User: Fold this.
Amino acid sequence: MCIHITFGKTKPVTGQTIEEIIAAKSAGMSDKEKSAYASEIDQLVFNGLLKVDVHPAAITPEQWNEAVRAQYPAMAFIELPDLTLYTVDVKELKAVLTRDWTNLCKYMADMFDCDKFADLLVARLEKYYGITAVREVWGNTTGGYHAFCLGALLDGGKLIARCIEPQTDDIFVTEGPLGTYAPDKTK
Assistant:
């Protein structure tokens, strides 16, 4: 069963919330159908509210390593999962982060904390934008050992490495929300 939602194309039923409309449309669906419906809603919300046009460029793991080690020579352990990575310009990533809602998630110690924020941002960048050159990393900060993201990004055509704090959307070299960041390993 394929359910199509037409946000903006039809008038909503007066007095019904989005939640009530979704509940009514999904009544009687199997779990598998509800999963497909939720996926469709997710994609529609992305296309309608969050989409930013980006122009991913292919780089090799060697180029990623070179950019990262030039900026962060103490990176001791780097593992990359793909033979080709895709990066974007710093300005494009900033535009994506402005619309991405990862930073709005509620922090919950030991349940949804720094590594979960980093995991979620990496997954969203990959799923929606094809950006695979931003990876979860771990390292010391003034505030303690921490998970965050590190990307090899384009800036004026040059490949540079930058830290990204998924809880705040900050992109920086070493000074971020938790003081000084020093990445030392990829996840």
Remarks:
- The first strand starts at residue 57 and ends at 59.
